[in-house]
Design goal:
- This protein has about 200 residues and is an alpha+beta fold.
- It has eleven helices and five strands.
- Strands 1-2-3-5-4 form a five-stranded mixed β-barrel.
- Strand 1 and strand 2 form a beta hairpin.
Length: about 200
């Protein structure tokens, strides 16, 4: 089992990152959150990994931190849930959001992840509810701004604008939650873009 990779980032796209270690390039499928935190191509990178071995392929999945990796392993432990579904859920929601949905039995919110149906979401909540502690599910009041309370007005329009240029709803909501909602839509978008590039 390959636990982690440290090496030079030589390629990225919307779903993968390739890390060169000792002259060998390892392609890792990764979440949008992990991909957004990677350095520039050519720089050193460290990823935690999870390897899936099948009869016809060996696949690596890369994660920026252990919390994301742990939630990935927990999600794919659910019957009928594979790695692609795990990556999809973690691309649309943070581990804290997922923990909140599971601990509160909120399958409806979880089903909003790309490619996740209502039955799949219900199965995840049912099978993992006992595994997710209330301590893990605890989130700050600031996080509630993008988990349970729908942004209104300029903030809502700014989130839609960010989603139109490639942000996921979770990424856009989390970034906008830290910005003054009284600002104009244009200024909120500018501030959000500045925040994610710093």
């Amino acid at each position: 089992m390959i636990y982690s990779l440290r090496g030079k980032l030589i390629y990225t796209d919307a779903k993968t990152a390739v890390v060169e270690c000792g002259g060998v390039g390892y392609r890792c499928t990764a979440t949008h959150v992990t991909l957004a935190q990677l350095p520039k191509v050519g720089e050193e990178v460290f990823l935690y990994t999870y390897m899936v071995v099948r009869e016809d392929a060996m696949e690596l999945y890369g994660f920026y931190d252990t919390q994301e990796l742990d939630f990935f392993k927990m999600i794919i432990s659910v019957s009928g849930i594979g790695p692609k579904t795990g990556i999809s859920i973690l691309s649309d929601f943070t581990p804290d959001q997922i923990a909140l949905f599971i601990s509160s039995g909120d399958a409806k919110s979880l089903s909003k992840a790309n490619g996740i149906g209502a039955k799949t979401a219900q199965r995840i909540v049912l099978e993992l509810k006992d595994k997710v502690s209330h301590d893990v599910a605890a989130i700050s009041s600031q996080d509630l701004g993008f988990v349970g309370i729908k942004p209104q007005g300029n903030a809502e329009e700014a989130i839609e604008a960010l989603m139109s240029i490639g942000f996921t709803e979770a990424e856009a909501s989390k970034t906008v939650a830290n910005i003054d909602p009284q600002m104009s839509v244009e200024d909120i978008v500018k501030a959000a873009l500045k925040a994610v590039t710093n």
